[in-house]
Amino acid sequence: MPPPIKLFAGNPNKASTSTSKLNTPKTPAAFPSSFSQTQAKKAVDALLAHHVKESAKKEEEELLPREEHVWLVVNTKHGSTRKSLKPVKIQLPHPPLPPPPTTSVCLLVKSPQREYKDLLATANIKFISRVVGVEKLKGKFKPFEARRQLLRDHEMFLCDERIVPLMPGLLGKMFFEAKKQPIPVNLNRKDLKAELGRAISSTYFHPTTGTSSSIRISTPSSSNPSETLQNLLASIPSVVAQIQGEWENVLSIGIKTSTSVMLPIWSSKLPGRFGGVNGTGGDVEMVEEEKKTKQGEAAPAPEPAPVTKKSSSLKKVAAGGEKETPSKKKSSTIGSGLVAKRAKQNVTGGKPKSKSK
């Protein structure tokens, strides 16, 4: 395997001076007093230990196991009214993906794509695996199978910020369901290599109108538990700052791999539902029901059963001593024999036999 490519010539955390199409990051929200970093460490250790066991099983059963990632999951109490195609860049202490060429990166650009291939060659940028122009997306990659193969071939997609609005129509929903949305980059930067390097080494929060968001924070095959914990603690305040209401609107926080269940790290208190009344524990509805019982409110009496015809007839028999004979039900086949006889006579031409007196 070739050695990892160095993405930066200088400090990767250095802030950029020019404007970008990415949403502006807000000031990170401080952790609440109920948040426990010890609990976060336990969750990371347990999740990675589970990943090691599952990976050993997959290596025996599968020929080419799929690469998994560690995701930060933030669940909110209320959905947001803000939805945008432009993600929020979150800088982490350690890259969430393995450095190229282990991670395949595709760059989506304007047409003609040859111009941008020459631009990358001039800047000596070798960590971009493929360059695809808009015309190729409209032609060669228009069929569903071609786009699905493009999705499988690359782990990350960068996109010229000038063509971001075209991406949902050209790529389809499969890229967004696989959480491989194109990341906007500015290809007019003087230091283009640093611009693309920062995009690859960062993680992103995609604003949605739902109540759950997932942010990739590490890859178990290239990160150890300490680096994963550092990325987790660095990403939580930045992600919560992007949520309307911040910590007041956060329901729970957890971590998971691509195929595991979520391990909880922090959960908010719900005093309105489970806090009880006057400091008592339990459900509010149960407390109200207990109050009504103590006040002596009787339950409504059961309604009397409706009187049927059978019960009324039994009363008459008991009073008068007369026994009712049930009326025989008329058969629907009465007269059918006579009709059959007449039909037979019409066929044979015979006369009906008279009965002897």
TrEMBL record:
* Chain spans, region Disordered: 1-35, 288-357
Q: Which Gene3D superfamilies match?
A: 3.40.50.790
- The annotated regions of Polar residues compositional bias extend over 13-26
Q: Which InterPro entries match?
A: Ribosomal_uL1-like, Ribosomal_uL1/biogenesis, Ribosomal_uL1_3-a/b-sand
Write down what this protein is called: Ribosome biogenesis protein UTP30
